[in-house]
Every structure is written in structure tokens, then in C-alpha cells.
């Protein structure tokens, strides 16, 4: 009876299917092909690329500096506008307070003269 008992099978058991690893095949060039290809850059090509990168870096730094300058200019304009608005507001409040003081004085003087 022990001989008829089948041990449990472990692992992947395809039932008419292709194993997943075999199913996925890389279709691009192999590593060997990449090493043997003719289109690999020469030292001169690499030097030219580095020069271009340095040129691009200089251009980028220039553009960044220009952008920062523009930001600072815009920031200064905004701050100036805010200060103008604040000063205008302070002047308005000051006028309002003075008007209230003169109104209260004149009303107190009126009441003093009317009571006489």
C-alpha cells in the first residue's frame, strides 16, 4: 500500500503550458552583440560629447542667473507695491483719526456753548 502512495510534487508543473521563463525571451541584442557593434563611440566622440555638455552647462548657468535676476526684479517690484499700499493705508487711517478727533472736539465745544 505504501508503494502506491505518490509523494507530493513541489515546484512549477506546467499542464500543457510553457514555463514562464521560457515564454519570456529577450528579443533585443545580446551583450556580446553590444560589445561587438561598430557604433560604439570613439575617444574623440566622447571628448566632443564632454565639450558639448560643458557648453550646455555654461548656457544653463547663464540662463539660471538670468532667471534669478528676473525673479529678484519682480520681487522688488511686488515689495514696492506692497509698501505703497501700506503707506496709503496708514495715511488713510491717520486722516480718519484726525477727522474723528476734530469732530469730537467740535462736538464737545458745541455742547459747551449750547449749555451756556
Automatic annotation (TrEMBL):
Residues 91-100 have a biased composition (Basic residues). InterPro entries: Fam133. It comes from Plasmodium vivax India VII. Residues 91-116 are annotated as: Disordered. This is Uncharacterized protein. Belongs to the FAM133 family.
